[in-house]
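Hi R.,

Here are the chain sequences for the assembly we discussed:
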Amino acid sequence: MRHIISILVENEAGALSRIAGLFSARGYNIESLTVAPTEDASMSRMTIVTSGSDDVVEQITKQLNKLIDVVKVVDLSEAEHIERELMLIKVRAGQKEREDMKRMAEIFRGRIIDVTDNTYTIELTGDGRKLDAFIQALDQGTIIETVRTGTSGIGRGNRILRV
Amino acid sequence: MDRVKTSALSGAEIVVRCLQEEAVEYVFGYPGGAVLFIYDELFKQDRVKHVLVRHEQGAVHAADGYSRSSKKVGVALVTSGPGVSNAVTGIATAYMDSIPLVVITGQVPTHAIGLDAFQECDTVGITRPIVKHNMLVKDVKDLASAMKKAFHIATTGRPGPVVVDIPKDVTAAVCEFHYPESISLRSYNPVRKGHAGQIKKAAQLLLEAERPMVYTGGGVVLANASELLRELVQSSGFPCTNTLMGLGAYPATDKQFLGMLGMHGTYEANMAMQHCDVLLAIGARFDDRVIGNPAHFAQNPRKIIHIDIDPSSISKRVKVDVPIVGNIPDVLEDLLKLLHGARPEIKAWWKQIEEWRAKDCLKYDRGSKIIKPQFVLEKLYEVTQGQAFVTSDVGQHQMWAAQFYKFDEPRRWINSGGLGTMGFGLPAAMGVQLANPGATVACVTGESSIQMCLQELSTCKQYRLPIKIINLNNKYMGMVRQWQQFFHGNRYSESYMDALPDFVKVTEGYGHRGMLVEKPADVEPALREAFGNKKELVFLDFITDQTENVYPMIPGGKGITEMILSEDL
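And here is the predicted structure of the full complex:
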């Protein structure tokens, strides 16, 4: 089962490698990992998407909690939550594709953020499935380059992760 | 935060002052370029004594043996690069057995880090998976608090080694020295008390048990909870077994003790583990050498109560019914209060256990004309009256020592249970002897293991450590040979050691006494002579039966009751 794990971690050198190293050493898989400082500069927040049985995910959260630099761990997918991912996708947009491509971006509520004679770069946010769907909807030959941030997540309403 | 204030000191002085503040008695180490300033400061004082080993692996093992036998934290000091990489085996050994160590490592100057400088290695990166925590101190202003943090983390919660990596320029830089008296970390707050509701559930299960079993591991020893364990077992009348790491937590000579369990555990302990209806696990982790195949273990229904300070040890390999996260002494005190000294009626269970015990699974040929290794250990137990500190290396000799030396006290049995490090025994014995001057210290080893850290005989000479080395010499890596006999068609691939040294001469070359013992009749007199010698290290080279195997044995991947028993049974 897919799980989204949110981690508050001390903003110390090497904290990321401790967490990534834990996953590789214990054979847990990482589907995606995002990290950036929070409003409190002494802490970073990390979102890791992983998959595994309930037993494995229980071990993952316990092992993460054991790391000295880890302040808090929450399995977001245990309850209502929102997840978002950002994708930048560069597509071929010559004379004949230009209109179609613009319409497609609008349908998916993407924004064209860079334009040249023969390319568009489109910014798209949503959950992973929406981004996948957009890629699927395009003529594969028109895709030049994609970059995705990986999933960030947050609990709904009163579910709060902070110190 | 309370602070002890003094004037400006160099980083090296700060390191030594921190060690003094922590009342560190011994530092085990080996100098080198990156730690020269620290060694200079050690030279100028005499409160912290330095023990010069002959290889950094020995320094960490010695600090480890010191800690295991004294309840104190062990401290090692090594230089950058090869100093660190040599120390890695020692650090990993301590990590697997949860031993509190602070390992101070030199590093190249901060401006040279990352430039492949001479004797540079990424210490924090290399040691990251084998430490409880590690840190690189890049600013002398952070040094005192880093040291405090290291001691705090190493010794609290589930203990473990902490590495403090200090670049050379940081040891030369100067700043005000304030040693914090206490430290609090928002991300690290080990629990103490167990959950009251869970403890109540545990008590209920224990009171209703028909076939209870108490199974305890190294956690009870580390938490200094032996007295409480004894009280619990003796007041309840329950049978008790200890893991390899837990030996001595419950007195081995007591009739409620079923012996060690696991791969080379007793028949009765393993059978009782499988057939009990309520299992109380304390500071143990159900590892592969203890319960064998978890699926086989789960075939018999039983309720499991598991007390441990580390939540990640609970329900890792075996599903647990009543998890209790907490400090073992705190939890046991609460549990004892609820049990009120109750003694459930379990006569039928004891009758069954006595039938298993009657199998006498550790029986061996006492009439042998060749020295049997088990015989040496029985005699060692007799001659030392069960009072020795016994360290061991890894292999058959380790298992026989665990089976035949009856430890009645905790912290007397010092071995590398988790990592299984050959070469551990001799340097660990040095730490044990320094922590317990005047005590009898025996290192049980084999001709293969002892050669992995043999150079430490030189350290023993320098510090006049009268350790007794019990070398069970069968010319084979015995445990490897045993597996090859059982599972690899008697093909003894590279497990025979040709060209062994004359250990008596080697020992004498290092300035100690050596004795060769070849006949069973000479075993006891030789031991008496050696242990009568309180001044010197004596190396006893026992030429033992090459074909002897350790029984019982649970083959890898098999169930706990699928034991291979001795042909003599």
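Chain A has four helices and nine strands. Strands of chain A lie at 2-10, 32-37, 43-51, 70-75, 81-92, 111-115, 119-126, 143-148, 152-155.

Let me know if anything looks off.

Best,
T.
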